[in-house]
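User: Show me a protein chain along with its predicted structure.
Assistant: Here is one chain, sequence first, then structure tokens.
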Amino acid sequence: MATRAARESLKVTVTLGVPAITFVALRFYCRLKIQKIPLGGDDWCILVALLLSTAIAIVADFAAVNAGVGDGSFTPTLDQIVFALKTVLALEITQITCMGLVKISLLLYYKRILVWNLFQTIINVLIGIVALFNAAIIMLILFSKGTPISKQWDPSVRYTATLQPSATLVYFCVGNMTLDVVTLMLPITVVRSLHMSANKKLLLSVTFSLGSLCIVASIMRLYYAVEYVREKSISHSYFEKQFSHDMIWALVESPAFIIAGCLITLGPLFRSKYGPANLLRSLRSVIFPNTGLNTSSKGRGSSRTNESDETATISKLRNERPSSTDTIVDKIEDRLTWELRELDETGSDRRQRNTQSLV
């Protein structure tokens, strides 16, 4: 019979796993079908992270059901202990890699839309820090019992005094949460300097801040990691309630951050003919075909057509500028797509813009 921890694990992985797969699929649909642009490094990183997250969910559910994880009264056999040690080692390394890839995906996405030299440098440094931090934690875990690595699943071998797994867990949670905050808050500093209306600034800030909700999962995992460490008698046991709580929040982290990382890329979908606004107008025209509501919708549609014609004219005039004007703004405009539209609302400030955005 499955333990309570196993049932909670199944609920979490299904509840968050399905939306994560859906949002990644929508992200790829936006890239390939709506924007018709090639996939970038940020897209491939998020795809690999999704595959790892799905693998984590499957293995964690299987281990929770078959190894009695989270059940303090469960008396495991030697084979079950070895199985639990192997499984936890694999899950830890995979989860650390997955979280690193999600952050690198976000940073690569920022690098594509934040074209200031300063931010390009900051993003490159952050990518290096994320990669080095995750690699260091993985090395600490792999060699916490010394060499060879097979000692990790030998229950008779003790951990070294300086590389206790409980301490490594806390180090990772603290460092991971810090990098999450820095990564998710980085674009907010750019939004404040853009030449746009307050409403658009608020919309962009809210869009980029959605990922901050995921930091709650990191905070909860840190809390239970500390609780797990405090219980000295069970700090090396994977069959206790404290470990199961940490495992549950670890299962929440990966898909939650994948969903947040995909949400900020779905602007083209919401603005397309399949977006909620257009679908609502279509539904309204069917329900109220002879009312003024439909007329107003048409009026808005015609205004959009005029705006499109005006944008095309401006683009044509820009293309006629001398080729010697090789500024960073020109490079930005050459790379514009539907997703990365210019946000400045005043023509006199066009040359002061140094960024692209989603909305």
